[in-house]
Write a structure and sequence with these properties.
The chain is of the alpha/beta class. It is built from 13 helices and five strands. Strands 2-1-3-4-5 form a five-stranded parallel beta sheet, with helices on both faces. The radius of gyration is 22 Å and the shape is globular.
Length: 297
């Protein structure tokens, strides 16, 4: 059976016979369909977020499994959670078929190995949430990971662009963003890949919000690893508190460069030590910490 992502797109049959701008317009028109496809699966994404929040609070982790483009997008999403949200390294773990060498170039046959997926999933426990990514919904590597996850009692989900994905029975939740045939038949780095990136953005960002790693729409748990991010920290503090740059710099220095205690300190006037204590009691949630110190959330 031909999957939707492998079918020929009737709207782009003449893509090699038109001018440059028209090629780009065709691609843009197809890309515009992706947001609606992802919007249609928001209820399913929400189910996986809620499962992941419960898992993390119980001591579990989130695991991504994918091959090719799907695996690379999973690695990208997991890697960006540390600088953006100060998420621990092992909170969201990405597993890519073929490991690091396959990130840069295709490694033969690794995506066809169920055994490889199961082996890479050997660290999964019943406390975890396992998310498989497969545009076609049939990748054997992902199948092996999902089967192993099920065998140990982990919650499972599948992100795909095939509503009739063969791997769907292995997932507690199916997230099938129906992006249809690609601009170039079978090139799932295009619309299907864009949909996977959007779903991962939505999933992991919402997970971080629910875990208290933002305050309002500000990145208050970020890690400043370069000058740009250090400047962003100061802007966040100034925006959130109304304090001038000198006061924000002093608060950050007193808080050893940690934004959250500096923020709570500036908003409440409490000592940094008291801000840290309130944050610890609030599981890192700024709004709750503010309430504990008598300030509006």
């Amino acid at each position: 059976m031909t999957t939707p992502t492998e079918a020929r797109n009737p709207r782009t049959l003449a893509i090699d016979a038109v001018g440059t701008a028209e090629i780009l317009r065709m691609m843009n028109a197809e890309d515009a369909r992706v947001a609606d496809a992802v919007g249609a699966v928001v209820p399913e994404i929400a189910k996986v977020v809620d499962a992941a929040v419960a898992a993390v609070r119980a001591g579990g982790r989130v695991h991504y499994f994918g091959a090719g483009t799907s695996g690379r997008l999973a690695v990208l999403d997991a890697a960006e959670l540390l600088p953006t949200f100060h998420a621990p390294d092992d909170l969201v773990v990405a597993h890519h078929a073929g490991g690091m060498p396959a990130l840069l170039r295709a490694v033969e046959n690794v995506e066809d190995s169920e055994e490889g997926g199961a082996a890479d999933a050997s660290g999964v426990t019943g406390l975890d949430v396992v998310i498989g990514l497969a545009a076609s919904g049939s990748t054997p590597y992902v199948a092996g990971a999902l089967k192993y996850a099920r065998s140990v009692g982990a919650s499972t989900a599948l992100i795909t662009s095939n509503p009739q994905a063969p791997l769907a029975p292995l997932a507690d939740v199916l997230i099938a963003a129906d992006t249809g045939p690609e601009v170039i038949a079978g090139s799932t780095r295009l619309k299907a890949g864009t949909a996977q990136k959007m779903v991962l953005n939505a999933f992991s960002t919402t997970l971080m919000i629910k875990l208290g790693r933002t305050w309002s729409n500000l990145m208050v748990d970020m890690v400043a690893t370069n000058n740009k991010l250090r400047g962003r920290m100061l802007r966040i503090l100034a925006e959130a508190t109304g304090a001038d740059q000198d006061a924000c710099s002093a608060a950050l220095a007193e808080a050893d460069g940690e934004l959250k205690p500096a923020l709570v300190h500036l908003l409440t006037g409490s000592p940094v030590a008291a801000a840290r204590e309130a944050l610890a009691e609030a599981d890192g949630r700024v709004a709750v910490a503010l309430g504990k110190l008598g300030a509006p959330a």
